[in-house]
Amino acid sequence: MNKNYSNSVNDMGLIFSETPIARGYLQLFINKNFIKNKVIILDYKPPLWKFYLKIKFKSCFKNTLNFLKSHKVLKFIRNIEDYFELEKNFLIKMYDFENLLDFENIFFSSHPNINNEKNINILKKIDNQNYLNTLNVKFNEVFKSNRNFFHIHPGYMYKVRGADGTLNSIKHYNEIGATFFKMNKQIDKGDIISRYKIEFKKLKFIDHSDFDAKTLYNIWYSFFDPALRVFLLNEVIKKKNDLNQFLDINKNLEDDNYYSYIDKDELKNFFEKKIFL
What we know:
Layout: E1 13-16, H1 20-31, E2 38-41, H2 49-60, H3 62-67, H4 71-83, H5 90-93, E3 105-108, H6 117-125, E4 130-133, E5 148-153, E6 161-162, H7 165-173, E7 175-182, E8 191-199, H8 213-239, E9 258-259, H9 264-275
Parallel strand pairs: 1-2, 1-4, 2-3, 4-5, 6-9
Antiparallel strand pairs: 5-7, 7-8
């Protein structure tokens, strides 16, 4: 029997795994009072599940929680919030473990792989059609669930696809962008609902040279990358985009570029020369 599911972005469920992206979306959903939205946790449910999830949270965000103790990083965070017009301390509050427990409809999938049959079966059982993805993995078998999955890519599709979207956008085009799209089995190739780009302006990060390349990279993906995605998601929510309304884009007239990760040996100089003031 066909069901009349909502096509509103406000009703989307969340495919959840402990990532900065997921934490950013949770905070935005809380701010919008979307706490009835369904959250699918890609994990099994042990008897002491809240305690288990808290231990996992601390393990996943060990470095990030230490960043929040640094005055230098906190000042940088404030600059990112200004950059994307986020409320003060948004990027700090999103790393509160308790945020997850604010949601009223939490489900456990029993398996960390989104394409596993257990996840397909649970998605079929849950009365929800549309889900926002927070994972950085390829979706294929899970489409058998006949559910719709949406993603925010940190690049202006199809111009910038693939890994390190924010960094490659800056490197190759001196811009930042993001795209809200409906996923398919190809990487960053789905139907586009909304997208955004602007010229990149360097960010002030006092004494950033005190941090090595790996740490700067982790700071970037703990705060700047999720802030960009949250910014676009907030715009999509404000515009009340219909999840079935796609942009009419002639792909043949657009750049279509797939990029890989920025070379590790290049990162330090890249941050010094292209990213920070």
